[in-house]
Amino acid sequence: MLKIDSHQHFWQFDPIRDNWITEEMEVIRHDFLPPDLKPLLDANGIHGCVAVQADQSEQETNFLLDLAKEYDFIRGVVGWVDLCSPNIEERLEYFSQFPKLKGFRHILQLESVEFMLKPEFKRGISALKEYQFTYDILIYPPHLASTPELIRENCDQAFIIDHLAKPYIKKGIFNNWEAEMKHIASFENVYCKLSGMITEADLKNWKKEDIFPYMDKVFEFFGADRLMFGTDWPVCKLAGEYDEVCGLVEEYLSKLSTREQELVWGKNAETFYKL
Fold first, then answer.
1. Which single residue of 79, 88, 100, 215 could bond 61 by disulfide (Cβ 3.0 to 4.6 Å)?
2. How far, in Å, are 42, 100, 272 from residue 134 at the CA level?
3. Rounded to whole angstroms, how far apart are CA atoms 43 and 143?
4. Mean of the pLDDT values across residues 41-55?
5. What is the pLDDT of residues 207-236, one digit of tens each?
6. Using 50, 70 and 90 to split pLDDT, how confident is the model at 175?
7. DSSP-derived secondary structure letter, 237
């Protein structure tokens, strides 16, 4: 069965650039590079990965592309480009020369809820489909109310929600998250990643019973055809190791049909990102 980790990161730690990694996050205040990940992939039967941006710079995009060129198991890259730039078409034309560059992401969770509806941002999103680039939506639950408008205006654009939109798993809150995720799932061009879950739960004492109810909801809304596995390594190390994330998803998927498991473990990532 093809298994793809659709969401992980690499970085050479810089305390100034990476100031979001605070001193309390000591476990990830280090370099994390392909030779660190490869043994974890092998030990868990994962065949490849998609490297996702963690810094908002074109330097980061080029850094990931250089790694992907050197290491075959990096099947694709989700980079960063200034989607609000007046010369966005020129930048996308430039990046279209790299076959492993599959899409882009902006760290919307750090922006106001209105940011994604700014005309210049929406213009940048609308330019992606000409080059068949995907877009990863990284948000918190308060941003969900603004998201349908962005999607509705780009019905041919491939979108994916990262980390289930970071529901409040630690507090066990569903509220608006549930209704708004159901609404977003009604747009057939939107997928969702089963990633970043343990870090939204109690970092020290999370258990599957806390997380599975949220997985139940996204399976109900998106179905196995539009969900994919991701670890969010090395960020996941704040709450657990790589094999723990794999084990959590494996236990949940074990109740599904072989076809559904194949889709979530790897085929959907292969299809969505054109790996």
1. 79
2. 27, 12, 8
3. 37
4. 98
5. 999 999 999 999 999 999 999 999 999 999
6. confident
7. G
Angle between helices 119-128 and 88-95 (to 10 degrees): 30
Residue 221: which residues within 8 A CB-CB, separation 6 or more?
A: 181, 182, 185, 192
Beta-strand pair 134-137/101-106 = parallel
The residue with tokens 């948000």 is: 139
Measured between alpha carbons, how far is 136 from 131 in angstroms, rounded to an integer? 15
- Name the superfamily (CATH) of residues 4-272: Metal-dependent hydrolases (3.20.20.140)
Q: Is the whole model's pTM more than 0.85, yes or no? A: yes
Instruction: Please state the domain extents for the chain.
Output: 4-272
Nearest-angstrom CA–CA distance, 195 and 264: 12
How far is Cα 92 from Cα 130, in angstroms, rounded to an integer?
9
pLDDT digits (tens, 9 = 90+) for 84-128: 999 999 999 999 999 999 999 999 999 999 999 999 999 999 999
Tokens, residue 99: 């076959």
Distance (Å) of CA 176 to CA 32, 33, 198, 206, 252: 35, 37, 20, 22, 24
Query: Do 198 and 245 contact (CB within 8 A), yes or no?
Result: yes
Closest CA to 234 of 4, 26, 2, 16: 26
